[in-house]
Design brief:
- The chain has one helix spanning about 1-20; strands spanning about 30-40, 45-55, 60-70, 70-80, 80-85, 90, 95-100, 105-110, 120-125, 130-140.
- The chain is mainly β.
- Strands 1, 2, 3, 4, 5, 6, 7, 8, 9 and 10 form a ten-stranded mixed sheet that branches.
- Strand 4 (about 70-80) and strand 5 form a beta hairpin.
């Protein structure tokens, strides 16, 4: 079982780096991540992260948690004017989930260090069937990507 989990993590990580996934019904091998970044935090204790997760499988993929060595990470959703922590977030079958300013996003708290522009922050996205590792480049505090998120 452990070998399968390691193989799944390696496969998912490779897909995240290449930005493409196999067209299958198995969400484990069909997750990819793009447009990941963290604006340089203005606070010493909190930061935000943004990215897009694509799922080319025929089954939804449940993002159950996120971890990073720089601090605690939670997924937050913004509904109306209120932000709240989400316990699980679904990436729909043959769809994508966009984490963007004003919407769903990653919230880093209790930072062990304040990331600076030009560095990268490693994040592990824990799904029900896979773990995907993403290196998020730290951009300027005012960075606005061409993708609009």
């Amino acid at each position: 079982m452990r070998r399968l989990a390691v193989a799944a993590a390696v496969t998912a990580g490779a897909l995240a780096l290449t930005g493409c996934g196999a067209d299958s019904d198995d969400a484990e091998g069909a997750l990819s991540v793009s447009s990941a970044y963290m604006p340089q935090p203005v606070s010493d204790s909190m930061a935000a992260g943004f990215l897009t997760i694509a799922n080319s499988s025929g089954k939804a993929a449940e993002l159950t948690s996120v971890t990073s060595d720089i601090g605690e990470v939670t997924v937050h959703e913004t509904v109306g004017q209120a932000m709240h922590e989400a316990q699980e977030v679904a990436v729909p079958a043959h769809g994508r989930l966009v984490f963007r300013s004003g919407g769903s996003h990653l919230m880093f708290e209790k930072l062990k260090r304040k990331p600076k522009q030009g560095e990268t922050v490693s994040v592990e996205l824990h799904f029900a069937t896979a773990v995907v590792t993403v290196d998020m480049p730290v951009k300027s505090a005012t960075y606005t990507p061409k993708t609009g998120h």
